[in-house]
From TrEMBL:
Protein name: AbrB family transcriptional regulator
SpoVT-AbrB domain ranges (all copies): 7-54
Single annotated GO MF: DNA binding
InterPro entries in UniProt: SpoVT-AbrB_dom (IPR007159), SpoVT-AbrB_sf (IPR037914)
Transmembrane segments: none
Pfam hit, one: MazE_antitoxin
Length: 54
């Protein structure tokens, strides 16, 4: 099942992950996230790389 959220891009190209997405994506402040653009699907994908806090 898909979870959908809408984000606004700031002047510095920053986005805030919506609450309903953060509930399913275990990311916390300080974590590193890999961002991948999938040319075939034409979508941006986020992957948790490392948790800085442990």
């Amino acid at each position: 099942m898909e979870t959908i959220g809408v984000m606004k891009v700031s002047r510095n190209y920053q986005v805030t992950i919506p609450f309903n997405i953060r509930q399913k994506f275990p990311v916390r402040e300080g974590d590193l996230v890999r961002v991948v653009y999938d040319d075939d699907e034409k979508v941006v994908k986020l992957y948790l790389v490392r948790n800085e806090s442990g």
